[in-house]
Amino acid sequence: REIQPLIEQIRDANSRALALDPDDPVALRTEAILVAKCGFDLQRAEALYARVLRALPNYTSARLNGAETLWLQGRFDEALAEVDLALVYDPLSTAARTARAGCLRLMRRHDESRQEWAIFRASGETSPWGLSGAALNELHAGRIEAAARILDEGIAKLPALPFLRYMRGLAHAYAGAPEAASACGRECTEQAPGALLPTQRASLASALRDKRGALVLLEQGLVERDMHFLYAGIDPTFEWLADDPDFIALLNRGGIPCWR
């Protein structure tokens, strides 16, 4: 299903909610998400989240969204502080645990991230995002076999979920098996056409060191206002392109000054 018409419906409904109550925290949070993920305006989104949290400091979802806005700007220490504060207000929040694990991964604190994922699993959570997040941490830590085991377990349990197969393709790419990686990408596309956003597909191309393929997909993501596009500026999979002028020019067009 096309996502843009859904976004327009959300935007319209939220505009009407804000017209009724300009200070409604849920509507303000939704506006901030749209401003950041679809408008690529992280500074304005940050200001909106701050406004929400001044009125409702224990609003866990808004604080975690605000933390994401910070780490998308490369401000990882500030983001981690916000996540930790969310856990003070809401110590049993599994969403805060996953956010903390993700932030620690981006900070290259892989052992601490692994511990967060272990706590997440010990809580009884069986979310596929837990599997994919733990696997991504192992990939970026260089523990490719550990990542592959996690993903194989997830695929066995949830064979209908294409995202895990795409992640398995990343693991193959990191392991230096381009044919297997490309096969996973094709299987994912055949299983659920349109399930992956262009930036997600670009990360697989990047892992395969396919610069042209990655840039074409990132260009598509920029044009389509792909909600994952901003991650291209911090995703370790694109680190090898950090000094590439074509890659940086593309990021700049999306408002991202540099990789990280």
Architecture overview:
With 260 residues, the chain is mainly alpha-helical. The chain has helices at residues 3-20, 25-37, 42-55, 60-71, 76-89, 94-106, 110-122, 128-140, 144-157, 162-174, 178-191, 198-207, 211-223, 245-253. Helix 2 (25-37) runs antiparallel to helix 3, helix 9 (144-157) runs antiparallel to helix 10 (162-174) and helix 10 (162-174) packs antiparallel against helix 11 (178-191). The model has no long low-confidence stretch (mean pLDDT 93).
Characteristics of this structure?
single chain, 260 residues, mainly alpha, 70% helix, globular
Topology of helices and strands:
Layout: H1 3-20, H2 25-37, H3 42-55, H4 60-71, H5 76-89, H6 94-106, H7 110-122, H8 128-140, H9 144-157, H10 162-174, H11 178-191, H12 198-207, H13 211-223, H14 245-253
Short description:
The chain is an all-alpha fold and 260 residues long. The protein is built from 14 helices and no strands. The model has no long low-confidence stretch (mean pLDDT 93).
Largest sheet: none
Please report the total strand number as a whole number: 0
Mean pLDDT: 93
Q: Give the distance, in angstroms, between the N- and C-terminal Cα atoms.
A: 32 Å
Percent in strands:
under 5%
- Shape from CA axes? globular
Radius of gyration of CA atoms, rounded to a whole number: 18 Å
Uncertain spans: none
Alpha-beta content class: mainly alpha
The helix/strand order is HHHHHHHHHHHHHH
Q: Helix amount, in percent?
A: over 70%
Number of helices: 14
